[in-house]
Design goal:
Structural class: mainly alpha
Number of strands: 0
Radius of gyration: 11 Å
Number of helices: 4
Distance between the termini: 31 Å
Helix content: over 70%
Length: 68
């Protein structure tokens, strides 16, 4: 069974691939909130990068900076 974080990542990937960056950002953000920050892994860094890319691709450059 997939965790809430994994489900949100899959949904975020679907929207990202379809260039719906606002929806993708929302799902990636929810995935990050569901992650256990006490035991960080590479997926947390990947999520921050993906959040930044959503903002960047939506041409919200200043908003993208904190995620990178």
């Amino acid at each position: 069974m997939e965790t809430a974080s994994e489900e949100n990542i899959l949904k975020g990937n679907l929207f990202f691939d379809n260039k719906d960056y606002k929806s993708a950002f929302n799902f990636y953000s929810a995935a990050l909130d569901a992650k256990d920050k006490k035991s960080p892994d590479g997926e947390i860094a990947w999520l921050y990068n993906r959040l930044g890319m959503c903002k960047y691709n939506a041409e919200e450059y200043k908003e993208a900076l904190p995620f990178h």
